[in-house]
Specification:
- By secondary structure, the protein is mainly α.
- The chain has one domain: Hemerythrin-like (Four Helix Bundle (Hemerythrin (Met), subunit A), Up-down Bundle).
- The chain has six helices and no strands.
- Helix 2 runs antiparallel to helix 3, helix 2 runs antiparallel to helix 5 and helix 3 packs parallel to helix 5.
- The longest helix is centred in the last third of the chain and has 30 residues.
- The chain is globular.
- The site of one fe (ii) ion has 6 residues, from helix 4 and helix 5.
Length: 170
């Protein structure tokens, strides 16, 4: 490795805006941990697109991030209900507040505002905290009451339900 690329590699590792997966984000539920990892990836892709100043890619990543986060919330809510988690309603309203906030960002973006940095910060602060605290609250109940096969079934049912809504059949 020559001097320039060593310096670049060092700068990349030092980029504090890139999120790295840390063990305290693991809930020990494979499907959900995988979804959370994907949200972290979306955050990093948003950061990259923003750094490059590519508004078209920023728009694509924002859409993907919002869509994926909503799907994840919907799945998590179905899982909490199936596990009989007692704080499911409170958790759901936290999700709804966040989705509302994302909707506002998308609206401002459509009006031409540069909100990608704010979204990035929000994902970093709100979502990571949500995973570490609130998502962790349901983890024990889900691990004790649902096995992987049941979780996969819920995921399939949830995808079907969402596809039906999109197609206006529900
Ligand atoms: Fe989550
Ligand atoms: Fe959640």
């Amino acid at each position: 490795m020559n001097g320039a690329s060593t310096t670049r590699a060092r700068l990349e590792t030092l980029d504090l805006d890139v999120l790295h997966w840390t063990p305290d984000l693991n809930l020990g539920i494979e499907i959900i941990d995988g979804q959370h990892r994907r949200i972290v990836e979306y955050h990093n892709r948003l950061h990259e697109a923003r750094t490059r100043g590519d508004r078209k890619v920023v728009a694509e990543v924002l859409d993907g991030l919002v869509d994926y986060t909503q799907s994840h919330f919907s799945f998590e809510e179905a899982v909490m209900a199936a596990a009989g988690f007692r704080l499911a309603a409170t958790h759901r309203s936290r999700h709804e507040q966040f989705v509302h906030r994302l909707g506002e960002y998308l609206h401002r973006f459509a009006l031409g505002e540069d909100i990608a940095g704010e979204v990035q910060e929000t994902v970093k602060l709100w979502l990571l905290n949500h995973i570490k605290r609130e998502d962790r609250e349901y983890a024990v109940s889900v691990r004790n009451n649902l096995d992987t096969a049941r979780l996969q079934q819920i995921l399939r049912d949830d995808e079907t339900a969402r596809a039906m809504v999109v197609q206006g059949r529900s």
